[in-house]
Write a structure and sequence with these properties.
- The complex is a heterodimer of chains A (405) and B (470).
- Helices cover 75% and strands 0% of the residues of chain A.
- Chain A is mostly helical.
- In chain A, helix 8 runs parallel beside helix 10.
- By secondary structure, chain B is of the alpha/beta class.
- Chain B has a domain of 257 residues: Spore Coat Polysaccharide Biosynthesis Protein SpsA, Chain A, CATH 3.90.550.10.
- Helices cover 52% and strands 16% of the residues of chain B.
- In chain B, the strands form two sheets. A ten-stranded mixed β-sheet of chain B has the order 3-4-5-2-1-6-11-8-12-7, with helices on both faces.
- The longest helix of chain B has 41 residues.
- Chain B is globular, with a radius of gyration of 22 Å.
- The chains are: A mainly alpha (405), B alpha/beta (470).
- Chains A and B meet through helix 2, helix 8, helix 10, helix 12 and helix 20 of A and helix 1, helix 14 and helix 15 of B.
Chain lengths: 405, 470
């Protein structure tokens, strides 16, 4: 007797299509079966997992103190994963005492040893998972295994190791990262490297200085940016050497770092950097001047208010508003620049800080401004514009507007 | 005549086969890349971005035209997003309902004269307002200009961050969506210039205080079919195109762009219909002409939930508009076709869009017409006809179920068994008659465009009512 398949086969001259139909039907069935089986399996897995998590949480203190023998869960991968996850999650929010207790537990139970072994001997995703977990333990004995992974051929592994070292947040991890970038150069994207170094160098930012002196190209930029983030007030003089660096990124980093400096020189240097030819160096200098909160920075900030770059003007205005206690005088000085973009930026910053009312009353009560000038300032404050400028001023504004970034 | 009908039928068959094989290849690529993405996230903790001082500021731009039903919830949702430095610019694009009043009440808006340098063209701005509740919120009230592009340009003029994120006013972002969408940017800020996130269907889900509480499948058939379409388009199509750096569309409902580049290409084209596609196409053109090394990414996990049309009339208008937008941009970028300087965009991405997106309704409807004609004339091979129908149906179903599987394996937002069963069932029903109706709407779109009807058109929105708001 002829089979159904034979009947279908004889339907037409295109056996290829028929085969394709059969394949498609089989694929449909397989996909559906996979979805249903996976759902069922996951449902069971999560039910079992939830129950086990609940059990472990119930006896958590006994478990981490060792009252419950580690062997009872360590040899079962399912249980081990749960215990490790709970411990690492607890680690994230633990205070110093609890952290020490958890670290002791991770060491005693052999979990750290296991992760170190996996980080060294496994490959692929299992290795990445081990590297990430090792970083989360913040155990110093994991640093070497992580540092070895920095030299791995795979970028994913290098990144995982870098993030792991970053979460260690200690100078020893920073030393390993810096030693590695010194020999290998910038072989990972800049941001993860910056992030890791920032976390690790906070305690000892001076670690960066010798490497900055010898680094070249984009690695130097990265280290400069890190220095900008982590520099401390005591580093004031060390930073001055970068103020005249050829690399704009480094000048910007120096400007950023000088915000943390208490040296009297910082103000002068930043006021100089406000004139830099690169806009983001000027921007960093203006932001740092704002952070210094020193009223002597006012002339430099007023200069920033007339900058050709919009971001610089905005930040200068915010800084002026932030450091100011005598708003009426500052407002008069802003008007004296005759720069309508600067005025606009200043008024925006005043409005954003919700200080418009204060500026109005300061103007009203000011004794240092004559009545005529006071009225003019009040008019400008009300209208938000400088009034009718002369023709040449208008032409200048139009010319500037074309090139405004 | 008979010869013509034969050729037509076989052409349709090969076209269908090629289109499905292309999608099958994309499905396989998507399976592989999603798995890699999932593994990568295991070693990449989002909290690090959240705490990083290096996370670049983002300006979220929300164009809003007659969105009084959803604007409060939407803005509240945005203000609660996890991201270290945010600015939110809502543009009231000449609404004639109470959109602005809703925001005034909810966020205590006060007029400001914020810096607004009109470097990009847009309709006149009536006023700028800053929120008294949260200073990160700026509202621009402007004259209507009839296009979303114009509203976005106005917001771009006020944006002060190096990255802008465009979000639709009727969408809900998951709390960590910005952290997730910025992962590729932070990994490679010099090369990654734009990133698109996934858009999911909000209808039917539960919303609480502007946040998605529980994802549920909508009730109406027409909405469920759109769920499958969205899964297919994003989890398969965009994922695969992004792998080849040939992503041509970042959805207008949720995407991040480098502000300087958007300004460099002149912002959004005000009279465009498909402004999202248009911008990405111009970014590709601009960067390829400069021979820049760049990447435009798609990330499948930062989720944006959006309301989709729940009646046939609105859906037909939306799809016709999408087709008009497609044709509009394809026509404008025709100069990029097969030119070596535009590389894979000129040789693969654009030709694919011409052949399998633009021409699909024409070829399919013409094909159906010739099959019917052949049947009437008695020249149709019954075997061929049956085989063709069966093959087309089963193959297309594989792709649809594949996209549901992709969602199951990776993000698994529909936890209810009932939802999954319904979703899978609809994979078998969407090919008749919805697919044919869809083709007809797209054909209408082409016809409207050729007739010179370039109007955006309005869609009926239910606001957050399509999702349940406890």
């Amino acid at each position: 007797m002829e089979s159904v398949f034979d009947k279908l086969w004889r339907l037409g001259p295109a056996p290829f299509v028929l085969k394709a139909i059969v394949v498609a039907i089989v694929a449909d069935v397989l996909l559906l079966a996979f979805i249903l089986l996976r759902r069922t399996r996951r449902k069971r897995y999560f039910a079992k997992r939830d129950a086990r998590v609940f059990q472990f949480r119930q006896k958590w203190d006994a478990l981490i103190s060792g009252q419950i023998p580690f062997e009872s869960w360590r040899k079962k991968p399912f249980d081990r994963r749960i215990v490790e996850t709970i411990a690492l999650d607890a680690f994230e929010s633990a205070g110093p005492e609890e952290s020490a207790r958890l670290l002791k537990f991770l060491r005693a139970s052999g979990l750290i040893e296991k992760r170190i072994y996996e980080a060294r001997h496994h490959t692929g995703w299992r290795r990445l998972r081990a590297l990430a977990a090792l970083g989360r333990t913040r155990a110093p004995e994991g640093i070497l295994a992580l540092a070895e992974a920095l030299r791995d051929g795979s970028e994913e592994a290098r990144l995982a190791a870098l993030r792991g070292l970053g979460s260690m947040a200690c100078p020893r991890a920073a030393e390993e990262i810096l030693a590695w970038v010194s020999e290998a150069g910038l072989v990972v994207p800049a941001l993860p490297l910056q992030s890791a170094l920032i976390q690790c160098c906070v305690e000892r930012p001076r670690l960066l200085l010798p490497h900055l002196k010898v680094a070249r190209g984009s690695l130097r930029e990265v280290l400069g940016r890190v220095l900008g983030e982590v520099a401390t007030p005591s580093m004031g003089l060390d930073l001055l050497q970068f103020v005249e660096d050829d690399m704009a990124e480094l000048r910007a980093a120096a400007a950023r770092a000088l915000a943390h400096s208490q040296s009297g020189l910082a103000l002068d240097v930043l006021s100089e950097l406000v004139r830099d030819r690169i806009w983001f160096v000027r921007l960093r200098a203006i932001v740092s001047l704002g952070q210094l909160s020193d009223r002597r920075a006012k002339p430099a900030l007023l200069r920033g208010l007339t900058d050709s770059h919009r971001m610089v003007r905005l930040r200068a205005a915010e800084a002026l508003v932030g450091i100011d206690t005598e708003m009426a005088d500052t407002f008069a000085q802003v008007l004296a620049t005759r720069d309508r973009y600067g005025l606009h930026a200043y008024l925006t910053a005043v409005e954003n800080a919700d200080l418009l009312g204060k500026l109005g009353s300061d103007l009203e009560q000011s004794t240092s401004i004559g009545p005529e000038e006071k009225e003019r300032l009040q008019n400008v404050l009300r209208s938000g514009s400088l009034g009718v400028p002369d023709k040449s001023a208008l032409e200048n504004v139009a010319k500037n507007a074309v090139v405004l970034p | 005549m008979i010869r013509f009908l034969e050729i037509s039928n076989y052409t349709l068959f090969w076209y269908y086969l090629a289109s499905n094989i292309a999608y099958l290849v994309m499905l396989l690529v998507a399976f592989k890349t999603s798995a890699a993405h999932q593994h990568r996230l295991e070693s990449h903790r989002l909290a690090w971005i959240k705490e990083s001082p290096l996370a670049p500021p983002i300006t979220i731009i929300v164009p809003a035209h007659n969105e009084e039903a959803s604007i409060r919830v939407e803005v509240r949702n945005l203000l609660e997003l996890d991201y270290p430095e945010l600015e939110i610019v809502v543009v009231n694009d000449g609404s004639d309902d109470g959109t602005l009043d809703e925001m005034r009440q909810e966020f205590r808006l006060r007029p400001v004269r914020s810096v607004y340098v009109a470097s990009l063209k847009s309709a006149p701005v009536r006023g700028l307002y800053r929120s008294g509740v949260d200073a990160r919120l700026l509202v621009i009230d402007k004259e209507p200009a009839g296009s979303k592009a114009d509203a976005i340009n106005a917001a771009l003029n006020a944006a002060t961050s190096p990255y802008v994120c465009i979000v639709d006013a009727d969408s809900v972002l998951e709390r960590d969506a910005l952290l997730r969408i910025m992962v590729p940017v932070l990994a490679d800020p010099k090369r990654v210039v734009a990133v698109g996130g996934i858009i999911r269907v909000l209808n039917g889900s539960e919303i609480a205080k502007g946040n998605l509480r529980r994802a549920r499948l909508p009730r109406k058939s027409i909405e469920i079919i759109q769920v499958i379409e969205y899964l297919r388009a994003f989890l398969i199509g965009r994922e695969a195109w992004s792998q080849g750096n040939m992503l041509m569309i970042i959805s207008g409902a949720f995407g991040v762009f480098r502000t300087d580049l958007v300004r460099a290409v002149g912002g959004y084209r005000p009279n465009t219909i498909g402004e999202d596609f248009d911008l990405v196409a111009r970014l590709h053109k601009h960067l390829l002409e400069k021979r820049a090394e760049y990447r435009i990414h798609f990330v499948p996990d930062p989720m944006c939930w959006t309301e989709v049309p729940s009646d046939l009339k609105s859906l037909s208008r939306q799809r016709a508009r999408w087709q008009k937008g497609l044709l509009d941009v394809l026509w404008l970028t025709r100069g990029m076709l097969f030119r070596p300087r535009y590389g894979r965009i000129g040789f693969f991405a654009l030709p694919y869009l011409w052949v399998f997106e633009f021409a699909a309704p024409v070829i399919e409807i013409l094909g159906i017409a010739t099959i019917i004609l052949a049947a009437v004339l008695g020249v149709l091979s019954r075997a061929f006809f049956l085989q063709f129908l069966l093959f087309g149906y089963t193959f297309a179903t594989v792709i649809s179920i594949g996209s549901v599987l992709q969602e199951e394996i990776t993000y698994k937002r529909y936890n209810d068994w009932q939802d999954v069963v319904r979703l899978v069932s609809y994979c078998f029903f969407e090919h008749f008659p919805y697919r044919q109706m869809h083709m007809f709407w797209r054909l209408q779109g082409i016809w409207q465009y050729l007739r010179g009807d370039h109007v955006w058109g309005t869609l009926k929105r239910k606001g957050m009512q399509s999702a349940s708001v406890p």
